[in-house]
Amino acid sequence: MNAHTQVPEEWRNWITHNLQRNCDLEMLVADMVRAGFDADAARTAVFDLADRSIAAASIANGTYVHETPRLPSGNVIRLPDRDVRVVLRIERPTVAFLDNVFDTQECDELVRLSAHKLVRSTIVDRASGGAGLTAGRTSEGTYFPLNANAFIARLDHRIAALMNMPIENGEGLQILHYRTGDEYAPHYDYFPPEDAGSRTHLAQGGQRVASLIIYLNDVEDGGATVFPKLGLRVGPKKGAAVYFEYCNSLDQVDPQTLHGGLPVLKGEKWIATKWMRQRRYEA
Ligand code: PD2
Ligand code: ZN
After folding, report:
1. Which residue lies with its CA nearest to atom 6 of ligand 1?
2. Is 205 within the bounds of a domain?
3. What is the mean pLDDT of residues 104-117?
4. 114, 176, 190, 213: residue to mutate for ligand 1 pocket, most atoms within 8 A of CB
5. What confidence score (pLDDT) does residue 133 get?
6. Which of 156, 157, 230, 278 is deepest in the core (most CB within 10 A)?
7. Domain coverage including residue 99
């Protein structure tokens, strides 16, 4: 007699019941095979239901569910126009230090195009959603709308391929300039779902899901990007970037991705930041 490849409702309930009793997954598969199920069909049903029950429990108690990283795997990420080297990778949350994202000329050109149009950086007011000044963010910045010109379009395309997201989901490339003493206090790049001020931002393109911070110069001293909850400090290197993910398919956001820019102790610091949204973003 052929083994059953369909797992009916009553058996799915049986699996769920046994998962709640913390039974070993392979034992459940073995029981089902003895009862006449095909081994692959049984394993798929048991592991799918186990994944779902872990996700449900995590949502119920607020624990972030880590999914397969969007960032491609491997030591080198081969993009249409260059190879990006993955120098360091952290799992849960996904954080990576990537080298050779922009070349020297591209970094210099971004600084040249930005230097004359910088304005004081703001933060999102948690209650109103409007822009506010704060002592914790003392940099100046500007941004380039998506595909603003051929040069920016080339960078936007490369970044989208690297972040494995549609280019339309990206916000315009943000450029920041820190003078000596300037910093960016620890914060989240996502819009806190519990804040009233997040509503208007979330209505346009959904939540931010991942960030790429590209260093446009070598900083003489200070200016590292820090992740206080991970004990991680990333030193700025011209053309290199730090990448991190913080929103999953369940719409959860990961508080472990708290991060900031330490004060620049000597010289200046320039960065470009790309924030990716869940959906198409129109400024
Ligand atoms: O300049 C940085 O290192 C930094 C730190 C934290 C930039 C950002 N956040 C950002 O652009 O979101
Ligand atoms: Zn940030």
Report:
1. 260
2. yes
3. 97
4. 213
5. 65
6. 156
7. 76-277
In a domain, 282, yes or no: no
Report the percent of the chain where pLDDT is more than 90.
83
Which of 60-69, 84-93, 145-154 shows the lowest per-residue confidence on average (mean pLDDT)?
Answer: 60-69
Residues 47 and 187 in one domain: no
Q: 38-71, pLDDT tens digit by residue?
A: 999 999 999 999 888 877 777 777 789 999 999 9
- Entry pTM: 0.84
| Closest protein CA for atom 10 of ligand 1 | 273
* 41 compared with 131, residue with greater pLDDT: 41
Phi and psi, residue 253, nearest 5°: -115, 150
**Ligand 1 binding pocket includes 270 (Cβ within 6 Å):** no
Mean pLDDT of 202-211: 97
